[in-house]
Structure formats: C-alpha cells, structure tokens
Amino acid sequence: MDDNQWRGAGDRIDTLLDACSAGGPVARGRAERLVREVVDLYGAAFGRIVAGLDDRIVEELTRDDLVASLLLVHGLHPHDVRTRVATALDSVRPYLGSHGGDVTLIDVADGVVRLELSGSCRTCPSSSVTLELAVEDAVRAAAPEIEAIEVVAAAAQPQAGVIPADALFARVHTADPPAGSWISVPELADLAAGEVGGFTVADVPVLACRVGADLFVYRDRCAACGRSMAGAALHRRMGAPADSAVLRCPGCLAHFDVVHAGTRLDGEGHLEPLPVLVRSGEISVAVPAEVRG
C-alpha cells in the first residue's frame, strides 16, 4: 500500500459504513462494531510490540507518517501534542524562511493550536495558499486531534508587500481543509547543488532548484513574459551572499530571487512558489487546486 492509498483509508472506511446504512440502523451499528473490534485487536497487538522496543527504535518509527498515525490512533505515540506540533513547525520553518517569515508556537490548549507569524512574506496573496498548505498540513498530520488553528501576527509595524496574518490563514479559520494535494516527487532528491530541473507534478509543469542543501520549487511560468522557463540556470550576483541564487528567464532575461519566494529583481512580480516537504521519507510538493485548475 503506497502513501496515497493509506492516506485515503479513513475516507474509504467511512464510505463503506455509509453503504451499510442502507440496511438500516442495525446493520450500520454492526458494521461500526466490527470496525472497532478490528481496530482494538490490532491496537492491542501493536501495543505489545511497542512495549518491547527501546526508546530509540520507537523514536525512529515516529518519523514514518503511517506508523506515527497508528501510534496516535492507539494512544501509543511517545510525544505529547505540543511536542508533535513543535516538530511539525520545525519541518516547515525552512520553507517559511524562504518567504522571509517565521512561525512561533504560542500555546496548545483545549484542542486549539495558537501560532504567531513574524517577518514578511514578499509574495502576492495567491502564494499565501501554498504557505497555508505547508503549515496546516504539517500541524494536522502531526496532531490530528486538534480542533482549530488560531494565528496572531507578531507585534511589528506593517511593511510594504506583507501578507496580513488573517489573509494568510483565511482558510484555516474555516472548517474546510485547504484545497490542494501533496504529490510525491522522489526524483527531486537527485538534483545536485546549483542545478535546475523541469518536472511535471499533477499535470503542472514546475521548476525545481537546489541551492546548497535547500530545495525550492516554482511553477514553470515566467512572471514577466508568461512563458516557460525551461533551460533556465542559477546565477549568483557579484557581491551577493554565497547562499543567494538568481534564476534568469531564458526568454525575456528577467531575474528572480530563488531563495526569497521568487521575487523579481529587475521589475515587478514574482514566480509562483510551491511548498516542499519530506513526507514518509519522500520529497513531496503541494499543488493548490487553483494552480491545478
């Protein structure tokens, strides 16, 4: 069973239970009881296995999304909810940093996670959806028992181009999950430092750039001329820091800052960034529904 299959297991179980409802409340009740019996049986066995493992091995197991989710279901996960949320935020912090921002965990209480956003995100509101996908997905995957995510902005004077916190997490305040999909793209791991590669993710052409150890992914469309940037290469401006990188459109020669959300350096606009996370040991890219559409 691959990641996409097991991630949809819960939905498939609900669908089968709903189908049992056609036989009336008694049939539905029996189906739910059957599911509970199976879950409890495997949970009991899983608990005995975990009890016989040392802490180091259990810690390793928690790094696998599937195993971690089962540990959570059966109350066997070694970390409390605050620790899990903090670890999840650490996993997306490099991506937020590429947008000039950061996130701080304020509190976890009564099923609510409270976060503080700081810094600036030098992007348009459309790319806030990608930030939302990265943060909310990471937090909810690590702590599915939470009921809500509340975000406050850090006390600071607003800057030009900063995305307000309420706009950034507009969808997080609703009950609906963010529209988009995480797609496993293991080929990205083969990119060498300083290399640019073209890929298709969920039918969307993208450019992936490796700057040092960091990976950045953008939709393959120049913000200046609107054409594909296939054939683009990374450059470093004279006098710029070693970890800086500029992507130049081979068509119109517009320059974009790869490390800072694809901001254009010689005019208005920016590339469209897509979030990148390591999920179940594989590099995955989030493609918002708006981009796929």
UniProtKB/TrEMBL annotation:
Residues 183-285 form the Rieske domain. This is NifU family protein. The keyword Iron applies. The keyword Lipid metabolism does not apply. PROSITE patterns: RIESKE. May be involved in the formation or repair of [Fe-S] clusters present in iron-sulfur proteins. It comes from the Bacteria. InterPro entries: FSCA_dom_sf, NIF_FeS_clus_asmbl_NifU_C, Rieske_2Fe-2S, Rieske_2Fe-2S_sf. Transmembrane segments: none annotated. Keywords: 2Fe-2S, Iron, Iron-sulfur, Metal-binding.
